[in-house]
Structures are given as C-alpha cells and as structure tokens.
Amino acid sequence: MKIGNVEFESKVFLAPLAGITDMAFRQVCRSFGAVYAETEMVSAKALSFGDKKSFELMKIAQDEHPCGIQLFGSEPEIMASSAKLAVNEGADIIDINMGCPAPKVANNGCGSALLKNPVLCGEIVRAVKESVNVPVTVKIRKGFVEPNAVEVAKICEENGADAVIIHGRTRDQYYSGQCDLDIIKEVKDNVKIPVIGNGDVRDIRSAERMFDYTGCDAIMVARAALGKPWIFRNLTEYFDKGIIISELTNEDKLQVMREHIELVVKYKGEHMGMLQSRKQIAWYLKGFKGAAQFRNEAGRLCTLEDMYNLIDRVLVSNK
Prior knowledge:
Layout: E1 2-3, E2 6-7, E3 12-14, H1 23-31, E4 37-38, E5 42-43, H2 44-48, H3 52-57, E6 67-72, H4 76-88, E7 93-98, H5 103-106, H6 118-131, E8 136-143, H7 149-158, E9 163-170, H8 181-190, E10 195-198, H9 204-214, E11 218-221, H10 231-241, H11 250-268, H12 270-284, H13 291-298, H14 304-317
Parallel strand pairs: 3-11, 4-6, 5-6, 6-7, 7-8, 8-9, 9-10, 10-11
Antiparallel strand pairs: 1-2
C-alpha cells in the first residue's frame, strides 16, 4: 500500500505510544517486520519554544525509514511551523494527533479534544499540508463523546490528508470496552484515502477480523506489542505469506528483551536507560513462571548487570 508517495512492503504498522515508542523500541519492532512506525507524540508548541527534550523525541535512526513524526497541538500556524522542523529531522510522514485521551493533552484543546471542532481539524491539516512536501496523516478516534469520526475524516481528506488512522473508541472510553469496528468500516466507506485501523489488534485472528470486517488498508498494533515485538513477525508472515509460525522459546524471548534494553542503554545511558526500561522488562516477563515476583524485581533494576542476573534467575525458574 501507499500513503502519498511513501510505499510500504506490508500492511502491519506500529502505533505511536507516549513514553514507549522511542527509537530503540521502534527498531526492535522493525526488526520483526513492522514496516512503519511513528515517534512518540511531540508537542508542536514545545518545538516552537526550542524545547530540547521535544527535539530528542524526533530523533530517527538511519535504518528505520520510512518513519513518521507525530505532532500534537491546536494552533494551525504552530503546527505548520513544527511540521517543517520535523521534516528537517527526517520525518517521511507527518502524523497529526487528534486522538490522545490524556487529560493533560485534551484539556488543553489538543489530541482528542480536536474532535469537538471538525472545522479546526481541517484547518490544521491544511496548514500542515501546505508547509511540507511529505504525506500528512491524521490519527483520530471514534469521537470525543458522540461518534463523529466520519465527519472529521471527510473534512481532513478535503483539506489534504493523505491517510487517516482511526482508533475505534471514543475519548470517554479511553482504552476500556471493545474497539468499534463499525466506525472504522464507516470511515473506510466514506473516504478515498487509505484508512488504517487501530484498536484491539492482539493476534492473527483479531487482525484478520479487522481487515475482513472493515476493509481497512493497513492496521496499527499498539499495546499487543508491549513485551512482544515479535507479534509483527507473526502477523506479517501470515498476511504476506499465509504462514503461521511457532512461538519463540523462553530463551529467545529473553534474548530479545536483552538486546532491546541494551539498545535503550546505548541511546540513553545506563542510569536513565534502565529507569525507563523497567516497565519494558516487566512486560517481557509476563507469562513466565514466577512472573509476579520477577516483575516486582524489575521495578528495582539499576544496571545492565542487574538485568543479566535477573534473566539468569528467570531461566533457571522456567526450565
């Protein structure tokens, strides 16, 4: 499939997740077949102030193209100027966040709060589209309280959006309840640009249902990739080749974890890298015998050596 002039070899993408989809995580997921990923969402206003941390979030490795940079904000001019900065940092696609449910984002009129003002959504898309020479996508939800995703998607398309990513829940639902496949289908039926479905894609069966029921052009995997980046290999092998592959061994899963955390430490240093990796390690350990105790220990890890010792104990307990 293609988004604008960017072509993808497969139709399984990694969804952007705040505090999670850093460069290391994106690279690990790509190594297992995620053909596209986006950065964590970046504040357009913070970029306009020259905020160093926001620029750090936009770092893209040489081997992870195509990669999108996701921006959030509510002012068209600031979004447009920040989009230019993102392209200068290497963005192949600019994604506009219109779906984040977090109060600190929505209460400032950004993220999912934009769904309450479809006209403003269109103005932001138009401003960004006119400022950059790369495809522009929007990530929306079913609605804020009441469903209006079709209206928003159509307005975004009319103003130049090259694709729409839709999560099948309202802002009020956050991540509770079930993803509404009907709204994704409705959006697909009402726009001509590619539609990427997002929400409750956990395995081959749920991904296949998303494709078959909605007719979407691609899917984005979010929480199902936490501690399980090999889900992308499972999905791409099935949808590209019709092959169902066997689950990784415990040793292989822990090796993936080890390489992932080593990459985090390489980019962020051991102190900060290990602090930020504790939650990742806990996700990887889910399903292992003694997981509760080991996840508790993961919350106190400070060095790579601590992690190596934990891995040894997990392997002994799971023989």
